[in-house]
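Anyone able to model this chain together with FE2/S2 (inorganic) cluster?
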Amino acid sequence: MSGRFSASRRTVLRGAALTPVAGFALTACSDNGAATSAALTEPTELGAESEVPKGGATLYRDQNVVVSRAEDGSLKAFSTICTHAGCPINKLEGTKLTCPCHGSEFDAMTGKVLHAPATTSLDELSVEAKGGTIVASPAG
Ligand code: FES
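re: yes, here you go
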């Protein structure tokens, strides 16, 4: 007698009812009308000149611009679109900008990278104070 195992495999198909997960709902939260993740394309009024102290910086989230002021009073402005993968930077502590996406850090006084993964400085913008109002413009 040949005793053979009958390898009867019970294939249990469990009704894996996978609910589709909205995987592409992670784009920027779109404020109506505001281009929240776009770089500056035209001269834009940001706010009162007095908002930027000497040796300090102010982040204008809606416009994706940071403005800093040196001790001699001169202003600098940088785009706060991260040079790593294009996220809008939303955090400023003192003069340090931190990108929420992968943690790159930038110096708001110089635009330079303080912490990887970004390797390229922030884009510098033109900036001037017109009648007490800071106006930033795309450079060049
Ligand atoms: S996009 Fe800013 S750190 Fe990656």
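Residues 44-137 form a domain with the Rieske Iron-sulfur Protein fold (CATH 2.102.10.10).
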